[in-house]
Design goal:
Layout lengths: L5 H13 L5 E4 L3 H8 L5 E5 L8 H13 L4 E5 L2 H5 L3 H15 L3 E5 L7 H17 L22 H5 L9
């Protein structure tokens, strides 16, 4: 939330600890404080380019690099949906590549707002994501937001299963 205060972030962290979550995901402005507060109990995740993904690549990569320097264990990034819709696939690839380079060996999850995409665009972004993930040899996990990302025969791509996104067609 844009209006989140530090006491609200502390409450979120406390809830993450109580519920044994995999991580606590917050905005980058609180990463350093949250890492200190969590003291290693739960990893801190942050979002970059959120919520629109429409910022320039250099700014998104800088935000990710700063978050990692401040102790974030993982980063969630939003792709530039406008570039995808413009069929500027090289720009989408570069966006993901630059942020991944900024986070190094930390986890990077790629958020795709599938509710804004046509079926053709969903297929293209899935292809781009698979292509990119294969190129970095499994150093990144992809986050799938929508069950409609499936192979043409109806099966779910191995990407979702392998990287913890979609577990099965009932999820």
């Amino acid at each position: 939330k844009p209006e989140a205060t530090w006491p609200q972030i502390q409450t979120l962290c406390d809830e993450a600890i109580a519920n044994h979550t995999a991580s606590v995901c917050i905005n980058t402005c609180y990463v350093k404080q949250a890492v200190e507060y969590m003291a290693g109990r739960i990893p801190v995740c942050c979002v970059v380019g959120f919520p629109l993904g429409a910022m320039d690549t250099a700014s998104k990569a800088f935000e990710a690099k700063t978050a990692i320097e401040n102790g974030a264990a993982e980063v969630d990034m939003v792709i530039n949906i406008g570039r995808l819709k413009n069929k500027e696939y090289d720009a989408v690839r570069e966006d993901i590549r630059a942020v991944k380079q900024a986070v190094g060996d930390k986890i990077l999850k790629v958020i795709i707002e599938t509710c804004l995409l046509t079926e053709e665009e969903k297929e293209e972004q899935a292809r781009l994501r698979k292509e990119y993930i294969a190129s970095i040899k499994n150093n990144m996990r992809a986050h799938l937001n929508n069950i409609s990302i499936r192979e043409k025969d109806g099966t779910i791509t191995d990407l979702g299963k392998k990287y913890g996104g979609i577990k099965d067609t009932q999820s």
